[in-house]
Amino acid sequence: MKGTLWLAWRQQRALVACAVVVVLAAAALAAYFRAGMLDDLRSGLFDHCDPGPLYCTRAPDGLPQFLDVEPLRLLGALNLVLPVLVGVFWGAPLLGRDRELGTHQMVLSQGVGRAQWFASRFALAALGTAVLSGALALLFRWWWEPAVNRSYGVFWYEATALTGSGPSLVAAALFGLAVGTLAGLLTRRVLSAAAWTLLVTGAVAVLVQWTHRARLLVPPHRYVSDGWQPKEPMGDKWSTGHYGLITGSGRRDSAAECPFPSGRELRECMTGHGYVSRYYEANPAGDYWAFQWADTALLGGLALVLLLVTVLLLRRRV
Amino acid sequence: MTGPDEPAALHATELGFRYRARGEWALRECGFTVPRGRITALVGRNGAGKSTLLHLAGGLLRPAHGEIRVLGAAPGGGAARSRVALLTQDKPLYPRFTVADTLRMGGRLNASWDQPVAERVVREGGIALSARVGELSPGRRTRVALALALGKRPELLLLDEPLADLDPVVRGEIMATLMAEAAEREVSIVLSSHVLPDLEQTCDWVVLLRAGRVELSEDADALREGHALLTGHVEEEPTLREHTVVHRRTHGRQLTALVRPRGPVGGTWHVERPGLEEILLGHLQDGTRGAKGAAA
């Protein structure tokens, strides 16, 4: 095992060095900008802001007021594309380079077997990927912490936060690695393996975003308020955009039937049409973890399936 | 040296292999034995299955049918891996590694490793250990690949076209290195090559493949003694009926035939003892006799 690990390290050390540089740079930026955010909060500028989705405004001119969260969003964007980057630059050459050069034949003609050769290099790549993605996810979480779910900060349901932090990022990065590895085995060319990885990992990333928006894996909660009394505030919930009226028999209708926010008109309209309550659908902030675990299970499961396919094909293809 | 009970260097029974993509059999019904301690020439035309056979013996491919054993063990298994070295045709090496790195890799990936031997093979070619493999000429790359194979101290060395695309001087040098190491350690060598003259001097066993089947697997001297090159008048040809005519060629009324006599040859023939090259060439050309033989 030692020999193949040495070879894996010798071939992947440049990638490991790149990963270390990325994490260190992100950590330095996070420390700098997070300190700036904390200074802004300490200055008292945001003390009057209510929690909730409504913009916090400045007293003199009424303009919305924000913390400097753009750099944080940039880290989130990097984390969003991280699985693709890992797949293209780490996964695709993992077997693809050896297949392209034929060097696996030379290595396997030495005293090592296929299983050992593959296990060593994949283990090192998976460890590197897990540490890289885990570190970036934790950095995001730490940096985000003063601005979590604040009108002047970043809400949990923004893609950069929901996908760019937490354990699902590690699963997504490992999925990218598994796609690249299998593509390298199948295509025998680093470049075409990279192209396939870009396509597949990108498509799955888009699909995951779609499942979030469609609330496919984490169904929303229905918040019902009796009669025309004020609805429970949306706060930091993630609205589906579905809201409306419910009749005595339980039928749900569009809010457009009574398009009044409150007051006498609403009351008259609702009694006239026989509506007894109003509702809206949203995911509460606590669903952040439900989304995280759903994505982790989905992408981690897919990564395991791809790894299994790779191992099964290894004997026939290499 | 090699007792009768010692397992053969190579032993194949009913060996068959087909590439999925092409679908046709690359090797079929191959049965042969190569004894230990021999330097074996694996000969055949392009596509005859030489590389496939060596890849099977090296454990890089698995037979679709039958079996092949190397030194009595299954190829690719732990027992065979440490005792068999395979140098594939394109001699793949990591281009970004230095020569020293490449040899270090050999040391790390093999249970037994002879660094002095590997370094000597490299140094004999005037190659600096600090040179990058990707920047070496093809001849020097072959030498580094050979150093990797010899540093392993194999008991069986499988070489797939080791001399292709090398100039004659380098070819001679590499052959000399190979033979010196082989003699020193009694390594069995199986070597596929198109360069028949190179084989004449070095090989003492011949395996000849034709269209995926083994046609000959014999001692080289026995082959030389078992063949005769006959030259005579075309009308004498019926006297050859009882013998195996490997290859025949007519020039006007003169007939030249490579024959495996089964007993004394009748008729009036000028008889010559053919060289190994002529015998192999005769067997390789066999089957295209009609068209090419007449034209020649």
From TrEMBL, chain B:
Pfam families recorded: ABC_tran (PF00005)
Domain ABC transporter residue range list: 10-236
GO molecular function list: ATP binding
Matching SUPFAM superfamilies: P-loop containing nucleoside triphosphate hydrolases
Keywords: ATP-binding, Nucleotide-binding, Transport
InterPro entries: AAA+_ATPase, ABC_transporter-like_ATP-bd, ABC_Transporter_VariousFunc, P-loop_NTPase
Descriptive protein name: ATP-binding cassette domain-containing protein
